[in-house]
């Protein structure tokens, strides 16, 4: 058994249903290939760190799955490339620590506690908002370096 | 006898004291570095988004390599920038 994880960004211009459908397409495809889907994480609409295809935000999905062989993965990557709804994707193989990490994260042992609704595999969650023209938050940098220097005593 | 508190120094003697660096992954038993967590990876880049060297972060070789891979994956997925200014 090998564990893989595929993360992809869906174009936010599509409607909520279309976005769900895009994610569902790949879920179905994995199931067809006799994969066991461990978890689907909907990371939701996020601001991109740099523009891709003139979009400043994207809808992130992450599917973790288990399979006997990884033979179909090149095929899946190809269909990601051909799909115009997908802006970017990344498939990685997880080692045992990665699997454990994801498992712990789902149980809420790592980092912040997340709300339930959005992390369940049978999809009943609400559609993410489609409007996507936010300006990236510009962080104000206050470069104030304080060096504590003991004052010399003056007599 | 004057104690150490009574002695006036021209410069703060606490400046320049060396603290032993350590690898936080070894110390806290972190075995997997998640590329989907840009807030965590932020600790290992400078203001321009460049990966900091081991010399500064104190990571062991094994985990520095994994940090670098995680940052590069985060960059690909646009979770972190390739080049920027005033990132922190």
Any overview of this molecule?
The complex is a heterodimer of chains A (155) and B (88). Helix content of chain A is 25%, strand content 31%. With 155 residues, chain A is α+β, with helices and mostly antiparallel strands. In chain A, a hairpin with a 2-residue loop joins strand 2 (36-52) and strand 3. In chain B, 33% of the residues lie in helices and 0% in strands. Chain B has 4 helices and no strands. Chain B has helices at residues 24-28, 38-41, 54-57, 61-76. Chains A and B meet through strand 2, strand 3, strand 4 and helix 3 of A and helix 4 of B.
Key features of this structure:
heterodimer, A: alpha+beta, 25% helix, globular, disordered C terminus, B: 88 residues
Class of secondary structure makeup of chain A: alpha+beta
Largest sheet of chain B: none
| Overall average residue pLDDT of chain A | 77
Number of strands of chain A: 4
Which spans of chain B of ≥5 residues are poorly predicted at pLDDT below 50?
A: none
Structural Rg of chain A? 21 Å
Level of helix content of chain B?
Answer: 25-40%
Describe the SSE topology:
The complex is a heterodimer of chains A (155) and B (88).
Chain A lengths: L1 E9 L5 H17 L3 E17 L2 E13 L5 H10 L3 E9 L1 H12 L48
Antiparallel strand pairs in A: 1-3, 1-4, 2-3
Chain B lengths: L23 H5 L9 H4 L12 H4 L3 H16 L12
Summarize this, please?
Chain A is of the alpha+beta class and 155 residues long.
